[in-house]
Write a structure and sequence with these properties.
This protein has 638 residues and is of the alpha+beta class. Helix content is 36%, strand content 21%. The protein folds into 3 domains: 19-219, Histidine kinase-like ATPase, C-terminal domain (Heat Shock Protein 90); 224-389, Ribosomal Protein S5, domain 2; 395-533 and 594-599, Rossmann fold. Helix 3 runs parallel beside helix 6 (184-197) and helix 8 (282-301) runs parallel beside helix 10 (345-365). The chain is flat.
């Protein structure tokens, strides 16, 4: 029996200064992964954006320096350098060294704020090897440096300046973060979003790590109207103008921009003080109530709905809708563990009132647009009823009771979903090999015939009439959309296993698009994977080696020697492997390589653009996307 631990008053630890942040960084920035690393940048930029929201700053520069440090500059007022009498320290030192200190409390410094309410700057300081802040104020430049949160010297004046604002440079601490190399694309996405949400603010991102600087400028005078335009760039808008509502009720400032397109998916994104709210909240509820009531009133008053027809639902009206709902509020209250859902009751009333009034006026002034939207919604209503009937066929009362093609699925014998996985395999040949190779207890095989339907271009009733898609929905067991219930998932790993070529990549993308549109929770909860079959088999003296990339093949050949005794096979498809090879390389849990598909809700709008670009009708945006991202492809069979 272990010795009893003493637990008394002296065992209660007091962490001084920023020690608490370094001890438990995840409590302050979510994680010490690559996501937490980028969060450091957002916290400093948020402080500059708050200056822009207050009307004192119109340009922010973000630099990724050669040593992978970050510099953020703005042309705002500059953090105050005078003595904070409560702390007896310069205000800038208080901001960077004391938690919960800043101009965002008490309503004095900022009316609205998007940062972590005074936590941000000090947390970034605590988690950096070093941080330097330069303040340009009243013709003077001030400097202070910190190392791992500790002050290295008192704030000092270092000379005259013609600049104004705050300049912060920091280097993330390798002792804290798993990864300390910033991703240009990740920062680009978030900074673009910030610029869209703050009209007239210019944000410039410069990467100094290459031979030449790489710079992107984000500056949108139209604000969220241009955001909607950007999100709809790969789609065909139903009408030319973007509908825009703006106003203030009480202490809530409301901005809404929206435009329908000819697609079938709803893409509505909500923000509070420029911070995304993936789970919505009262502001989103107010918006949805407003458009549902306003469009139904218009359709009834203008005889676009017959007296015998039921009201349009919100889903009908929002089919093919892209919208941004952005509010500014002094004291946002968030619900839930993840703090991603707004709870302020006044936000609902403010959004509902402003959108109802201004949208009613817009529809009366633009009857042709109003008719276009209502006609699309009526068609959606009819398709929804057809889809309901189709969906009923995919629901299962018992295990696979309604399976359209029960012979296609080779199920596993273990009935505990935590132990079970299902391989989605293209073609009967690969499916046959996989069925022979699998562990029958825990691995199910579902072969699909060719390329499944592109759900990006198809209405729900036709999608649910597709045999391959019905088979997948039934096999997974969760249902889709409103019927989705993750507790009914029959396999905790859904593994997409396709050939390592262009056709295989296309099939994988079609499958991921289906899952993203109809069962996104499977991706969010980490249940979706991509199998990684080998590209090459090398045989030498009856010994086998497998290579998953050209580089790996070269390494193997360098190791075993390059001569005529080597037999090298380039796999063109899974069907070329026999069952033993497929098990050994791709299906054996002890040896295989699986890539888990992740979904970052903070960048959900960028994810939307990616899917609609790759799977939509417009060729030019897809060509531009491939050209821009080709350098990230690891292998391509052409």
């Amino acid at each position: 029996m272990s010795q009893e631990q003493e637990y008394g008053a002296d065992q209660i630890q007091i962490l001084e200064g920023l020690e608490a942040v370094r001890k438990r960084p995840g409590m302050y920035i979510g994680s010490t992964s690559i996501k937490g690393l980028h969060h450091l940048v957002y916290e400093i930029v948020d402080n500059s954006v708050d200056e822009a929201l207050a009307g004192y700053c119109n340009e922010i520069n973000v630099f990724i320096n050669k040593d992978n440090s970050i510099t953020v500059t703005d042309n705002g007022r500059g953090i105050p350098v005078g003595i904070n009498h409560k702390a007896g320290l310069p205000a800038v030192e208080v901001v960077f060294t004391i938690l919960h200190a800043g101009g965002k409390f008490g309503g004095g410094g900022y009316k609205v704020s998007g940062g972590l309410h005074g936590v941000g700057a000090s947390v970034v300081n605590a988690l950096s090897e070093w941080l330097e802040v330069r303040i340009h104020q009243d013709g003077k430049e001030y400097l202070q440096r910190y190392e791992r949160g500790k002050v290295m010297f008192p704030l000092k004046e270092v000379g005259p300046t013609t600049l104004r604002g705050t300049h912060v440079t920091f280097l993330p601490d390798k002792e804290i973060f798993e990864e300390t190399v910033f991703e240009y694309a990740t920062l680009k996405q978030r900074l673009r979003e910030m610029a869209f949400l703050t009209k007239n603010l210019k944000i410039v991102l410069t990467d100094r790590r290459g031979e030449e600087d790489k710079t992107r400028v984000f500056h949108y005078e139209g604000g969220i109207k241009e955001y909607v335009e950007y999100l709809n760039k790969t789609k065909k808008p139903l009408y030319d103008n973007i509908i825009y509502c703006e106003g203030q009720k009480g202490n809530v400032y409301v901005e809404v921009a929206m435009q329908h397109n000819d697609a079938y998916n709803e893409n509505v994104y909500s923000f509070v003080n420029n911070i995304t709210t993936p789970e919505g909240g009262t502001h989103l509820t107010g918006y949805r109530n407003a458009i549902t009531k306003t469009f139904n009133d218009y359709a009834r008053n203008n005889k676009l709905l017959k007296d015998s027809e039921p009201n349009l639902t919100g889903d009908d009206i929002r089919e093919g809708l892209t919208a941004i709902v952005s509010i500014k509020i002094p004291e946002p209250q968030f619900e839930g563990q993840t703090k991603q859902k707004l709870g302020n009751s006044e936000a609902r009333g403010a959004v509902e009132s402003i959108v109802s009034e201004q949208l009613t006026y817009y529809l009366e002034q633009n009857p042709s647009v109003a008719r276009e939207i209502c006609d699309k919604a009526v068609l959606a209503q009819r398709a929804r009823e057809a889809a309901r009937k189709a969906r009923d066929l995919t629901r299962r009362k018992t295990a696979l009771e309604n399976m359209a093609l029960p012979g296609k699925l080779a199920d596993c014998s273990d009935k505990d979903p935590r132990n079970c996985e299902i391989y989605i395999v293209e073609g009967n040949s690969a499916g046959g090999s996989a069925k022979m190779a699998r562990s029958r207890a825990t691995q199910a095989i579902l072969p699909l015939r060719g390329k499944i339907l592109n759900v990006e271009k198809t209405r729900l009733d036709h999608i649910l009439g597709n045999e391959e898609i019905k088979t997948m929905i039934t096999a997974f067991g969760t249902g889709i959309h409103d019927d989705f219930d993750i507790s009914k998932l029959r396999y905790h790993k859904i593994i997409i296993m396709t050939d390592a070529d262009v056709d295989g990549a296309h099939i994988s993308t079609l499958l991921l698009t289906f899952l993203y549109r109809f069962m996104p929770e499977l991706i969010k909860e980490g249940h979706v994977y991509l199998a990684q079959p080998p590209l090459y088999r090398v045989e030498r003296n009856k010994k086998m080696y497998y290579a998953y990339s050209d580089d790996e093949l070269n390494n193997i050949l360098n190791e075993i020697g390059r001569d005529q005794n080597n037999k090298i096979q380039r796999y063109k498809g899974l069907g070329e492997m026999d069952a033993e090879q497929l098990w050994e390389t791709t299906m054996d849990p002890e040896k295989r390589i699986l890539l888990r598909v992740n979904m970052d809700e903070d960048n959900s709008s960028e994810l939307e653009v990616t899917f609609s670009t790759l799977m939509g009708d417009k060729v030019e945006p897809r060509r531009e996307f491939i050209e821009e991202n080709a350098k990230y492809v690891r292998y391509l069979d052409v």
